[in-house]
Description:
The protein is built from twelve helices and eight strands. The protein is α/β, with parallel strands linked by helices.
Amino acid sequence: MTDFGDIPQRGLVLLGCGKMGSALLAGWLDRGLAKSAVHVIDPNPSEWLKATGVNINAALPEHPAIVLIAVKPQMMGAALPTIASMGGGKTLFVSIAAGTTIESFEAVFGDDSPIVRSMPNTPAAVGRGITAIIGNDKATTAQMDLAETLLSAVGQVVRLEHEGQMDAVTAVSGSGPAYVFHLIECLAKAGEAEGLSPEMAMQLAKATVGGAGALAEAASEPPAQLRVNVTSPNGTTQAALEVLMSEEAGLPPLMEKAVAAAARRSRELARG
Length: 272
């Protein structure tokens, strides 16, 4: 059973329970967190949430062990005042809201509040996400460990060296699933152009990208070597890679531009 620290005694408040909040909550309950310890604030609770048996829109503990903020950035202004009184240092705040800085949360909860900012991605919905975290100077080692425990319920967790890296994380893993989904679209369309039915082309594209991703994670060899392994000299894969790996118009410069654009936009959004 997972060690949830003092959450079972002091409670956990989940502010917002949309897709990501629901995925996290399901993971916590699966790992043995008591339903009675969870307090959800959500104006429109789903039928699934109601069926979990957790506390919904009920009286909250005065100083819970942790508050996890899972509302959309545009809803912050209305949502945060409902939990502002929990600031002051006794409660750890963990945010999974994109583009909202630690400084912004310190302005609401006080400089003495421990705060962890995180960036999960959408594969968390199937337990295959990856989340980057960074804490302020008030977040203790034990609190960082607790945040990692909670977020690992939906996948891997990595720790950043400084908050400035969050824009790059947003551009690579936060937005990254959309790039992969588009790759699947393009691969399927290319298959159709070569004579496959749309259904078969999509099935092949999905399974190929999903399987290759799983192999890349499981293999001890780096992706570059896996690419070499499947590329026969003067074969079909090499013919395709000569196009994709072109230094002028191939995937490397295109991906670099795409990630740079996403990181730049992330910085712009953080500045408001």
